[in-house]
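Protocol step 4 of 6: structure prediction from sequence.
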Amino acid sequence: MFTRRQTLAAGLVLACTPAAAQSPPSRPRHSAGCCLAADELPAFVDPRQPMRAFFTGNEPIIPRSGDRMFDQALAHTLAMLSQVFGVVPGFGFYDDYDAMNAYASAAVRMNRADGTVLFGTRLLQRERARREAPEVAVAAICAHEFGHIVQFKTGLYHRLIAGQPTLKRAELHADFLAGYFAGVRKKEKPDFPAAVFAVTQYHFGDALTTRRIHHGTPQERGAAIVAGFKAAKEQNLAFGEALGTATRYVATV
C-alpha cells in the first residue's frame, strides 16, 4: 500500500530536467502501438526490422503540459492509478509530431522503479478538445498505459503475446485494467462518467486484424473496458483477482 505522499509523488508530471531544444529527428513510419519493453527497444529502432515504432523510447521528455491546473488534476489521477494498480512509473509528455500516441516502456528514465509512461502532446491536445469529459478521456488513456506497466512488472506482457500473431491480447488486457480503474472510480464517485473510458478506447480500435500491431477492433476494445468495469463495480474484485480475470478474459477473445 502506498502512502498518500508516495502516490502523489508518483503522479507528479515532472522530469528531472527539461529537454534541450533541438530539431525533431526523423522517425520510422510504421507504428508498433503503445507498448515498448526495454529489451525490445533495439529491435524497434533497427532499420532492418519490418516493424518499427513512431517513437524510439528515447524521446526528450516534456515535464508539464503548460496548464498548471490541468497538471495538478492529472497528478491526482496518476496518484490514484498508482495506488489502485500498485505501480510507480515515471510520467511525462513527449512531442508526437509524426503520429499522435502515448506509450509505456519498462525502461526507467525518471527515477521511478516501474518504468515510464509518456503521453504525446498532440494527442493530449486532441483529447482535451473533446466535448464530453475530456479529462476523463485523458485518464482512460493513462489507465491503459499504466496497465502495460503492470504487465511489465508482473511479467505478464510476454506471456500475453507469446505465440500470438498480433499484440491484441496485451492491448485488451490493458483495456480491461483501465476499465477496472473506471469501476473503482465509479464506486467512489457515483457521478463519475465511466462510459467515457469505453468510448475512448472504442475509438482507438482498428481493423488491422492480420498485422502485428493489431490492438483489437473497436467493439473488442470497448467490451474489454466494460468487462473490467464490471469486475470492479459489480463483482467487487480486488486488483490481484481482477488481474487474473483479465488474463483469462483475453485468452477467450
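Step 5 (inspection) to follow. The chain has one domain: 4-15+28-250.
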